[in-house]
Amino acid sequence: MPHIAIISASVRRDRKSHRAALYFKNFIESNALATAGILDLQEYNFPLFDERLKFQPNPTPQMLDFASKVKNADGILIVTPEYNGGYPSSLKNIIDLLYDEWYRKPVAISTVSGGSFGGTQVITSLQFSLWKIRAWTVPAMFPVPTVDKSFDEQGNPADKAGTDKRATAFINELLWCIEAKKRMDT
């Protein structure tokens, strides 16, 4: 069974995007699609990027743990809020921290906002950064508009049937890319 690492990108107080990360973990595991774990950037509390991990003389144990979890995951699902049309610096920080770990890694993107566009303005800039480090971005997207109305604090969706239907197509696309990569690597 594949393993999906879910990156919860917001480190803000009272963040709402983490609700979507909780939803995806529960959805993936309760439907036995894969194993899933959340890499919560708020818990990691990384220092500001100053050099790629492989060039750091004394990387922290947290950096090594995070790098290992990204490298060993079959696929990555990034849940990111949109801040002023872009993604948070906490996410840019970890994208730049790693390099080899992202190589041809299937990465799905879920964008979140408090407004009606669901964070869709962030997709282009985030995809570009991931492409530059040679990650494989999955073509399916999962925008979440009005996140505070879409999910409760435990990640339960307000419209379970509709959200699950969208999530099925989204996660199946990530799983397809994971399987395709696995076949190409053999």
UniProtKB/TrEMBL annotation:
Q: Which residues form the NADPH-dependent FMN reductase-like domain?
A: 3-145
Would you indicate the residue range of the signal peptide? none
Query: Per the record, a Pfam family?
Result: FMN_red
Q: Name one GO molecular function term.
A: oxidoreductase activity
Cellular component GO terms held in the UniProt record: cytosol
InterPro entries registered for this protein in UniProt: Flavoprotein-like_sf, FMN_Rdtase-like_dom, NAD(P)H-dep_reductase
Q: Which PANTHER family match?
A: CHROMATE REDUCTASE, NAD(P)H-DEPENDENT FMN REDUCTASE LOT6
Q: What is this protein called?
A: NADPH-dependent FMN reductase
Species whose genome carries this gene: Sporocytophaga myxococcoides
